[in-house]
Amino acid sequence: MKISNIQSFSSDVLLLKITCLAWLVAKVMSFKLWISDRVFPVVPTFDFFSLPNSVHLALYFVSLLGIIIIFFKPQKKIIAFVLAIEVIVCLLDQTRWQPWQYQYLLTFSFFFFAKDQKQILQLCYVLIGCTYFFSGLHKFSGSFLYTFWDTIVLRKILHLDIQAIKNPVIHYMGLIPCFIEIFIGFGFVFFRKKRYLFLMAIGMHLFIIIIYGPFGTNHNNIIVPWNIAMILYALLFFGQNELPPFNRLFFVNDFNKIVFLLIGILPFGSFVGIWDNYLSFNLYSGKTFNLAICTKEQSVHPEIKHYTSKVINNKYCNGYYLINVNKWTLGELMVPFIPEERYFKKLKEEFEIKFSDTDNSFVYYQYPYKKQNIKKVP
User: Is the pTM of this model over 0.70?
Assistant: First the structure.
């Protein structure tokens, strides 16, 4: 299929344009994520991928230029070029493997490998469906009820008192969004008529924007363009009379099989720790690890003082000061850290190289926040 020959207002080209816009906004918002001249350490996948900032910067601007060209004139060779660049920049720094980055990479790959418009749209339905399904499945837990529903929605947004929050009915109402998200995901993959699913999805994304955006908790604003893109996808698909269904013919194509393995099978591995959480759409479930750096001297490096607690922390740091890593990455890079143990080990190595004069230790922990769930990074 020659993408450049598709009519300007066809669904797949509009979908590609939406993806380009959302990706551009996210990359501009998170500029420091894509360079190495920053305070937060670069965490390369392999040691030989450590390159000077000029290379990171050049790849960043080349990527932006490529996405802009694709927006105005979609061509497979440019899509392939951008895909290659993005894979390289992600290998240069593991912190760049954000869930929205993963989704945009997959979407671009559909336009490169798919044979026609129907296959592109079919793959997009499956990708979006798996995103909702696994995201909802991961949220079906007590950690989600405590960290998101009770703490953010009921306490910070609705300002309910502690007695109301402890009410079992109000507390377990937090599972309703999980069921809705799972249902939307299942419907995207298996239902032929999807219009009501689009309306539910639009409502859910508006809710997320309100909760996490600048008018809510103002936390992790990088997900706002992603959620806007998901709303635009739903509006784009909503007006279609016939939507390509997911059936056994889907598996006739080898590329479809690879995609389904990546987004429909391997994410189950995240429940037993053999596949990455962000590559499994484990988003805001409260189940992933938190990370803290415990440091003896609070004033050694003033550039990270803003992310360091003002009081000695005894719960996680045994009398040391605590550096909140998520607050640091969100504050400087505009993205959360990668919640994987291998990432913690590599980050610890890079931190100790960059801040060699700091007496520190790394600890990671998860809900419920008890002693047995607090571990030191080796």
Answer: yes
